[in-house]
Amino acid sequence: MTGAARRVGVALLAVGPRRGDHRVAVRAAVSVAVPLLTVWALGRLDLGIYASFGAFASLYGRHDAYPDRIRMQLAAGAAVGAAMLVGTALSVLQAPDAVCVLVVAATAAVGTLVSWVSRWHPPGALFLVFAAGATATLPADVDTFAGVLLVGGGSVLFAVAITLGIALSRGGLHRGPVRRRERVGATGAEMALTAGAGTLLAGMLALLLLGSHWYWAMVGAVAALGGAHVTARLVRGTQRLLGTLAGVLVAAGLLAVQLPPLATIGVAVLLQAGAELYVGRNYGIAMVFVTPLALLMVQLAAPVDPALLLRDRVIDTVIGVAVGTVVAMVSSAIRRRVMGGHPDPRLG
């Protein structure tokens, strides 16, 4: 086994140390539980997926000071909300799937650039791609925009309110140094171009081969393009693939049981907590929780044959990870040639 292969193997299995992950997990669980229970009580579980996307705001800035974390969650939450509106507009307009893929790829590029400049953590446009792609494939009419704004926007504000409440209780809102923003520069532009190209290729290939749930391939490509260097990208892509395969088995069992809506919400909340316990420690383990969570939310919003759902998730993930990995390696090779063998270590 070569040194590079050994490093990849070790990184695949490594589980990082705990850094207060249980607190993040509880916040994330509450952030998604309350909005989901609200739409359930109103008899509008079809809007649950928008509540779930809005709750993504709670995942940003977990290790930042409270003022920076709140600003980051507001900005990222607004970006996720905008992505949902873009996807909903595509659905209302009944845009061809190829146009949807193109627009979601543009969302990936713009989101990656904004994330880079704003120094978001987690970095990248994965949540934006997921939100835009999923909502583009859901049935929608003009009235759906109100649901996106009220449910999705309300979920974002609730997540931020939790962070604000914790900050106030701990006296953590004192002013500190302003968080430095990155310049766009060649690095940011290259990252945005790579994300846009990778998601576009993955989405088009999935559309040609499957025709449904193509956005999962785009999400897989974004994930595989994350990382500070090629080895990190190989590890992340492989972890996403292996974790997804294991997660699909979990999802198959849950979908076979045909849980009632309230039980589905309870399971989703537990899965969200589990994902946050491990996402910063081993991405592959986190995907074992993320995969059934995503499938349950999609199934709540637009029920389809579970076998089709599971099949598409596996194949689209393989497509996305494969395309993202190839694009990452080609991008790295071009960058090394242009920069004389000294790529920017910040790239991810």
Automatic annotation (TrEMBL):
Keyword S-adenosyl-L-methionine recorded: no
Domain Integral membrane bound transporter positions: 201-327
Keyword terms: Membrane, Transmembrane, Transmembrane helix
Regions crossing the membrane: 36-60, 72-92, 98-117, 146-168, 189-208, 247-271, 283-302, 314-334
A GO CC annotation given for this chain: membrane
Topological relation to the membrane, as annotated: Multi-pass membrane protein
Keyword Oxidoreductase: no
Location in the cell: Membrane
Designated name of the protein: FUSC family protein
Phylogenetic lineage: Bacteria, Bacillati, Actinomycetota, Actinomycetes, Micrococcales
